[in-house]
Write a structure and sequence with these properties.
With 356 residues, the chain is of the alpha/beta class. Among the domains are: 69 residues; 97 residues, no CATH class. The protein is built from 16 helices and twelve strands. The strands form two sheets. It has an eight-stranded mixed β-sheet with strand order 6-7-8-3-9-10-12-11, with helices on both faces. The protein has a four-stranded antiparallel β-sheet with strand order 2-1-4-5. Helix 4 crosses helix 5, helix 4 packs parallel to helix 7 and helix 8 packs across helix 12. It starts with 23 loop residues before the first strand and ends with a helix. The relative contact order is 0.14. The structure holds adenosine-5'-triphosphate (ATP), iron/sulfur cluster (SF4) and magnesium ion.
Length: 356
Amino acid sequence: MNDTSSPQRNSDGVVSVAAGRGPLAMEAVSLGKDFRLGRGDVLHAVRGVSFGLYRGAVVALVGESGSGKSTAARLLAGQERPTSGSIRLGGVPVDVSSRRAFRQYKSKVQLVFQDPFSSLNPVHTVRYHLERPVQLHQGKRGDEAAREVAALLEQVRLTPAGQFLPKFPHELSGGQRQRVSFARALAARPSVLLADEPVSMLDVSIRLEMLGLLDDLRRRFQLALLYITHDIASARYFADEVLVMYAGEIVERGPAEELTQRPAHPYTQLLVASAPDPDNLGSALRGGTARAGRQPAATGPATQGCPFSPRCPLADDRCRTDDPPPRRVSAVRAAACWRLDVAAPGILAQSQGGGT
Ligand SMILES: Nc1ncnc2c1ncn2[C@@H]1O[C@H](COP(=O)(O)OP(=O)(O)OP(=O)(O)O)[C@@H](O)[C@H]1O
Ligand code: SF4
Ligand SMILES: [Mg+2]
């Protein structure tokens, strides 16, 4: 991709560690999405979200159910129109207003869903699912298309390809279906892959293997990968940068290892504390996932002040009236919290002392 857009410093003043992997592919700038709920009520599903996706890098979007992760992914995929803000692909503002423009956009930006069963058509074979995008996006026909379809199946390790081509989705295991979904996404030859909880519906025994496959595809095709999950342990294992989302906002961002080892925001601290064993991802993925992230919290976000204030042990009067803006806590980290001096004194002291 011809990328001329500038880096990399987000609106909160931090630089993304993912930028070290490759050029900026896609950028969300102050992205917002409201849903009208009737009787004049409005739900702010995504609010002021800004981040970049870089070729060859994984950015994880982590948060509990209802935090706005899928809405953000649908906005980036061009399936929803933003209420505010903008999306840039290769430095150019995205316009998907015509069918043709949307199709061209889809050849660059692909979305893979959580449930491969519902995203594959039960009446069509694997061959059909892959041939169509190969024809549509690559313009290949006949033998050329057949060779490309076989190559795609090999790339997602469904071999021998001939064995899988005539199968219908119900004849495949969950993992095999998700591999077909990955292959279908790759058929478009995208630069950006948006993976919305790609392993959370799969058997726990194959989640690690599937993340390994995604990582391999990322490297091989220099994909800019957005990995959406409620499971912060898998984000630590898999991502370069982690964005923690709560009530539609990014409340903390930073390098995956650093952020999960030393979370600054009280909500990130809760997510890490609720993960089964953040130090041992293998056991976390094999034994289940962070249940705190799976379920919506019993107490919803505040509509005034800091959204996390009803659940935050550190909330004070200011938290209940004013929503904190993101604050730079190091060259590569930011958190939206008024009380970082109490929540993360060590991290602040380090950054004020000149550390990164
Ligand atoms: N089309 C819609 N109309 C109205 N509200 C919506 C719509 N789509 C999403 N929402 C609401 O927006 C909020 C964010 O939803 P979203 O699906 O983005 O969350 P999520 O973080 O992906 O959650 P999960 O982990 O359960 O997938 C939720 O409160 C949801 O009910
Ligand atoms: S701003 Fe206040 S309520 Fe919000 S996370 Fe920080 S301490 Fe908690
Ligand atoms: Mg979702």
